[in-house]
Amino acid sequence: MSWKDFPKVELHMHLEGAAPPAFVRGLAQEKNIDLTGVFDERGNYTFRDFVHFLQVYEAATQVLKTPEDYGRLTLAVLEQCAENGVIYAESFLSPDFCGGRDVTAWKEYLHAMQEAADQAEAQMGITLRGIVTCIRHFGPEKARETALCAAETAGDWITGFGMGGDEGMGRQGDFAWAFDCAREAGLRLTTHAGEFGGPESVRQAIEDLKVERIGHGVRAIEDPALVDILAEREIVLEVCPGSNVVLGLYPRFAAHPIAKLREAGVKVTVSTDDPPFFNTTMTREYEELERAFGWGAEDFAELNRIAIEAAFCDEGTRKRIKQRLEQA
Ligand SMILES: [Zn+2]
């Protein structure tokens, strides 16, 4: 069977990282922007390793300049998600790319993205919520400005705050001010950890930033005591197996620790991260997990229940999405 129409909840996706290559090429053409080195000869994104991936990612993002571009991007991304059965998604949004962390400019970008999301909801039945995300390798000072943008726009639609970027830069605790600011504004918290950083980066995320979800977190598997802490405290992992395989953390899906983490009682969910960069979709993630671990409809339904319980949305939205999952 194909998993394409199986209803899905996705918690970890970067909006620019989900940009379909054809969409980015089209915008580059309209604006006469040179994207040499971004695509391979077949038109897919190309990169050597994680640091190069971040460079290509930021190069591709250069074509996205105006709020209107971001509105079009949001619609193009949600079309792809809806085609793969996603009924609720959360996306990381970056004021760094949307107006250079200026609050007034950020509000204009946000307005365009929200309008596009409303249109997608009406036309395709997919619900989106935004998580404002600071970029770790831009440093703690810029993260503060990003947090202020998040705090200014916290509400029903911007519901979370997070951090992505190069885990090699600094420590989680260097960003505590930004996370405290976001928490005080009522935002729910997640951060990337335990992807390229080891288990200690996951401990730091929990202790120094007090997040309730972790982006990736899979390298917690290297520290059994930490696995127990994740299970006991019900910290949810936003696991992106295809991303981890392409970036070389694990040689193939069957070697990925998602099944072991789940067996140890950790709350795991499945997402795509930056799907066209990693040649994946939610459908493909399910297919690969079925092939690697024999997971079926009951397993995936459980992962989706965990995901919607951990979603950073209001209770009314959660109830509505849960009903749709149960009906399926
Ligand atoms: Zn990510």
UniProtKB/TrEMBL annotation:
<dbReference type="InterPro" id="IPR032466">
    <property type="entry name" value="Metal_Hydrolase"/>
</dbReference>
<feature type="domain" description="Adenosine deaminase">
    <location>
        <begin position="7"/>
        <end position="326"/>
    </location>
</feature>
<dbReference type="GO" id="GO:0046872">
    <property type="term" value="F:metal ion binding"/>
</dbReference>
<dbReference type="Pfam" id="PF00962">
    <property type="entry name" value="A_deaminase"/>
</dbReference>
<comment type="similarity">
    <text>Belongs to the metallo-dependent hydrolases superfamily. Adenosine and AMP deaminases family.</text>
</comment>
<protein>
    <submittedName>
        <fullName>Adenosine deaminase</fullName>
        <ecNumber>3.5.4.4</ecNumber>
    </submittedName>
</protein>
<dbReference type="InterPro" id="IPR006330">
    <property type="entry name" value="Ado/ade_deaminase"/>
</dbReference>
<keyword id="KW-0378">Hydrolase</keyword>
<keyword id="KW-0862">Zinc</keyword>
<keyword id="KW-0479">Metal-binding</keyword>
<dbReference type="GO" id="GO:0019239">
    <property type="term" value="F:deaminase activity"/>
</dbReference>
<dbReference type="GO" id="GO:0016814">
    <property type="term" value="F:hydrolase activity, acting on carbon-nitrogen (but not peptide) bonds, in cyclic amidines"/>
</dbReference>
<dbReference type="InterPro" id="IPR001365">
    <property type="entry name" value="A_deaminase_dom"/>
</dbReference>
